[in-house]
Amino acid sequence: MSGGFLNPLLVQDAVRRALEEDLGRAGDLTSLACVPAGRNAEAVIAAREPGIVAGLALAREAFRQIDADISFKTPVADGHRIGPGAVVAQISGDARAVLSAERVALNFLGRLSGIATLTSRYVAAVAHTSARICDTRKTTPTLRAFEKFAVRCGGGMNHRYGLDDAILIKDNHIAVAGGVKAALVAAKAAAGHMVVIEIEVDTLDQLDEAVAEGVDIVLLDNMRPDTLREAVRRTGNRIKTEASGGVTLETVRAIAETGVDMISVGALTHSAPVLDFGLDITIR
After folding, report:
1. pLDDT tens-digit profile of 60-105?
2. Segments in 87-193 forming alpha helices (H)
3. Where do the structural domains in the chain lie, given as residue ranges?
């Protein structure tokens, strides 16, 4: 499944900063010392384990920024399911440049493919229901756009990108505002006509208050499946429902079967293991 659009300007900036971090002030001392100038190399990036590919644009950009003459061809696309040993990129060009870009390319590819792979497992676990798996804002600082792209590659959907996307009233907002009704009244007065309002509720009493006041989405936080089922019944399909709070692969199926519309999972981005890729090089 394709992750859709990924802003190339964000890709260029993120890769530039990653290369600056890795190359530092003096460049790749090892390659400069051990690899003769002008030597060419061919290489492949291959998977060491099965998963879903994500992040090829960042890997490509890492090589391009080091040397625009490097050839980077991809026999697969982001969102493609691969097995162990699958080649996801074929590279040729200056050997020093290939080696200098290798780690940054693999770091992005492994991180994002890991997120896509974990997301696909959650999606598969609820495929027999109408629930959709979505991410959260629990992302690596400065990498959110890419990590959310990876979630889409794995078949998930994105929650808001930032604080400026929508109004999400959480428990601390409710406490400061003086209650569910007070928070919703204030939010409605401030929101533009295109701004969605969601409110987090911890109890069925809070849910009833939110439904009575009117809201676009209710976030049902840390509720047991039987409570979630009752919450869905009380909304009467008039309000979108989102379950959240400590969701795991072991619990997500039961949560989805309660009838909630969405399940937000922080683990997709904050706890996804890296998918292992390696770059295998030959000199020519």
Report:
1. 999 999 999 999 999 999 999 999 999 999 999 999 999 999 999 9
2. 95-125, 144-153, 171-177, 180-190
3. 8-123+272-283, 126-270
Q: Which residues contact 69 (CB under 8 A, 6 or more apart)?
A: 93, 94
What would you report as the CA-atom Rg of the chain, rounded to the nearest whole angstrom? 23
148 is catalytic: no
Annotated catalytic residue: which of 78, 209, 221, 261? 221
Output the CA torsion 257→258→262→266 (10° steps).
-80
181 noted as active-site residue:
no
Query: Range with the lowest mean pLDDT among 158-167, 249-258, 275-284?
Result: 275-284
The yes-or-no answer on residue 165 being catalytic is no
CATH class of 126-270: alpha beta
Lateral strand order in the sheet of 240-244: 132-134, 262-264, 240-244, 217-221, 197-201, 167-169
**Average pLDDT of the segment spanning 159-186:** 96
d(CA 104, CA 109): 9
> In Å, how far from its chain's centre is CA 3?
10
Average pLDDT over residues 240-263: 97
Q: In CATH, what number does 8-123+272-283 get?
A: 3.90.1170.20
Which listed residue (61, 78, 200, 242) is catalytic? 200
Q: Is 221 a catalytic site residue?
A: yes
Q: How far is Cα 109 from Cα 99, in angstroms, rounded to an integer?
A: 16
